Amino acid sequence: MSGPPMSSSFQYPPRAAYAEDFSKSLGRQHPEAPSRTRSPFARDRDRIIHSTAFRRLKEKTQVFVAHEGDHYRTRLTHSLEVAQIARSLAVALGLDADLAEAIALAHDLGHPPFGHAGEDQLDEDMQPFGGFDHNVQTFRVVTELEHRYPDFLGLNLTWETLEGVIKHNGPVTDRLDRPSWTAVARFNNSFDLRLDGWPSAEAQVAAIADDIAYNNHDVDDGVQAGLLKLDELLDVPLIGPILHGVQSERPDLDERLVRMEAVRRMIGAMIDDVMGETLRRAQVARLDGPEAVRTLGHALVAFSPDMGEDLARLRQFLFDRMYRHWRVNRTRSQARRILAEMFGLYMSEPEVLPTEWFARSQNRDDAGRARVVCDYIAGMTDRFAIEEHRRLFQLDAWN
């Protein structure tokens, strides 16, 4: 017997005047025939999902290392959660959801193993050779390091997706003189991404979806890992009042369900805040097209000032109590030593690199060889890096 029909107050909003229009895309660096079944932005999304770098995100982590547990977020699950939030926000704001989703799925492709500890170590190792920046590495992954097509390197993504990948947080022209940004400056000379302007509303949605996802999910993972206790969060802005509300309304819930319900409500509160602030800014600015977003002079998609202040205090709490917890510090220390030792060995003995990577390192100066070594290490998963280090430095790995 079927139940009563489900009702919903949701209705798809009309397309916003400042949304990107895929039929007016500025195209790809290497022209291709259009797809018969997908928009250009949907095609970009699919290429990102099918990339090698995307698959490797399943064993790259943010705070915890992959072997510490199966329930903590990896870069892959985080990227999927960011993409879900970005797509939902884009739909609700009348934007192109495929473009927002594509940028969200791509945003972490350049992260090395071991999260921020890995990035810090690679940047330190690469200081004599131009440094390391995960945003630039993401851009290099989609423009040159992926090699899946016979006619070009990279994924040959549309102008709008590439623009969103490299400047989703705002203009980046002030970074182009940094050695680590050389690859971006070089690419921009042949395919101008207008790096001095703000990105599309869709790219800004992807960026703020990242903020929403990691703030909530770090709280969730931190409590699961025993680094935080729910009671400690009761006096923290945003999450504290929500926890009080859940416990008051549902005293029957166990701690696990209280945590999950609080995180769910916090995500909803942050999304509602972004919606309200973004629509307010759009109304004030009277945006008449996507180019008006790029020349607005400030972000269109944003948290309200009050929410921004609460999030800053939440992030400080997480930094003090979770990201610098002694257990996390030990993991960071181990991770940095693993990468530092491998980097040093590959630089001094490049012949121990796999054949393909050794070939790439040949006939290069020190900076060129260092970049090859860095690319090889950055592409590793946590698990592979641990195993590779063991093979290189422990004799029992040969048994």
What do you see in this structure?
Helix content is 58%, strand content 0%. The protein has 399 residues and is mainly alpha-helical. The protein folds into three domains: 37-190, Hypothetical protein af1432; 201-327, Hypothetical protein af1432; 331-398, no CATH class. The longest helix has 31 residues, at 255-285. It is globular. The N and C termini lie far apart (63 Å). The model is unreliable at 65-71 (pLDDT under 50).
Shape: globular
Q: What gap, in angstroms, lies between the N and C termini? A: 63 Å
Number of domains: 3
Order of helices and strands: HHHHHHHHHHHHHHHHH
CATH topology of the largest domain: Hypothetical protein af1432
What's the Cα radius of gyration? 22 Å
Strand content is under 5%
The low-pLDDT segments are 65-71
What is the number of helical segments per DSSP (H or I, 4+ residues)? 17
Family: Belongs to the dGTPase family. Type 2 subfamily.
Biased composition (Basic and acidic residues): 29-44
Region (Disordered): 21-44
Organism: Caulobacter ginsengisoli
